[in-house]
Amino acid sequence: MTRRALLGLRSPLLAIAGVLAALIAWQLWAERSDPFYVPTTTEIFGAAWSLWRDPDFLSDAAESLERLAAGFLIGSAIGIGVGLLMGSSSRVRRALEPLVDLLRSTPPIAIAPALLIIAGFGNGMRVPLIAFGVCFPVLLNTVDGVRAVSSEVRDTASMLHIGRLDRTVRIYFPAALPSIVTGLRIAISVALVLVVVAEFVGEGGGLGGYLEVAAARSEFPEVYACILFLGLIGYVLNRFFVLVERHLLAWHYGAVGEQPA
Amino acid sequence: MNSQPEESPVLRVERLGKRYATDGTFALEDVTFDVREGELLAVVGPSGCGKTTLLRILCGLTKPTAGAVLLDGRPIVGPPREVSLVFQDYSRSLFPWLTVLRNVMFPLRGSGLSKEGKIAQAEAVLREMGLNDVGTKYPWQLSGGMQQRVAIARALVSHPEVLVLDEPFASVDALTRAELQDVLLRVHSTREGRAATVVHVTHDIDEAVYLADRVLVLSPPPGRVVDTIGVGLPRPREQTSTRSSAEFLTVRNEIHTLIASENALRSSLSADR
Q: Are residues B204 and B101 in the same domain?
């Protein structure tokens, strides 16, 4: 596998042409608009370059990434754990399904005010909010993955007298792993959205807080530069997941004869 | 080899019935037969005759609604450790995340053997199945026939008394099927006593006659025992000479006729209604 394929750039010339076209379109639009609200591409890249060298901005970025990681890890641990329980026991599933259906239909951001009251501003509210949003896609995919385990595999486990815990850890978890990883990939995008939104309110803002302050101060080149960074973070996280998937699930893609996108 | 008298069967199936709770129809009705020590019994019948239900009851995976199955004289209530099952679809029963060796070692979990002991036992049974040097591969890297050999190896690794196979060769091509039939015959002939007891469920009458000591014929649903046909063909059997012998043809024709007349009887009954 070439590095180019790893980056998802199978046709770099066309990809570069696409990016260039977008930049030109932006530039044309900027030249015809109020320069205060729509900065030119050079202004945006200039702002991005100075932000990149600004230790305050980098510590904001580190703060956001820490929250993202904490919320993602807590949320996916709960999602996988509860998902395995619900997938392997029809009793647990029947007990929790209505509750899960209700909660997952709730927009995560709607619980933010309640979390603010309980936990106050700052990480006390933000990490649980991200974990809440991350939990459900992971949970649902875990349940699906476990339920899709073939009856042959279940019967084999029964014939071999494998205990419930062992069965869950040694059979259901690996069998559901391809589905779980799909859930994690959806969850990472959700987490990125939620970390930015959660940082719009309260102090100690991270990248979301920076964005909010910059917009309030009408520092539009910085606003767009920050959006660019957030996009890059999302892109890198996604590619990172593809790499993990290829490594961890080589057996699965070998068995089904495909590669992760 | 064991203290029980020769006549006592390994498996005794007594007046077995299975009625589905969902619609009240019978999958099996009054099924009675024995499986003797070291015997290879084939079960044939039209589709939907309850072959799979019967097999699941033998393995303790499904509870009968009437009658009982006795293994060495004791009724089966849950999956017995002495019985191993091979499924039709190897791709759905082997664990794709484990290598071949680890798949075969899996049933030895909790056996008290050391890791080296488990590896040695798994490698021995893989060799017995004619699978050398594939231990580090994943099941999906092997051909269908090889995968089914791995599945049989996994079923044999814990030294079961009874090997139960559910249409094990239905998912492979004809050449591989013949090859696997001979693998099963070799396994059956090299094992001794109770360990050589095999129940083989199939819809292929020729396969049943080629492999079995006796063929149990089930009726169209609800499954009942139509007859048990003894196959007197000499062993070792061989694909071309055995299958072209007059005896083979006589037995297979007898079974075909039995099933055809059962079917005719059944359709005339339903026409009368």
A: no
**DSSP notation for A242-260:** HHHHHHHTHHHHHHHT---
Range of the domain at B115: 95-159
CB-nearest partner of A159 from B79, B140, B141: B79
B185 and B58 share one domain: yes
Beta bridge partners of B227: B217
- In the prediction, which pLDDT does B4 show? 45
CATH architecture of A37-256: Orthogonal Bundle (1.10)
Query: Domain for residue B271, yes or no?
Result: no
pLDDT of residue A226: 95
A-B interface: how many C-beta pairs under 8 angstroms? Answer: 56
Residue A257 has pLDDT above 90, yes or no: no
Q: Which residues of B are less than 8 Å from A175 in CB distance? A: 95, 97
Instruction: Give the pair of three-digit tokens for residue B242.
Output: 């055995």
- The confidence score (pLDDT) of residue A260 equals 64
Is the sign of the CA dihedral A164, A167, A169, A175 positive or negative? negative
Q: Give residue-wise pLDDT tens across range A2-31.
A: 555 555 556 788 889 999 999 999 999 998
B152 plus B171 within the same structural domain: no
pTM given for the model:
0.85
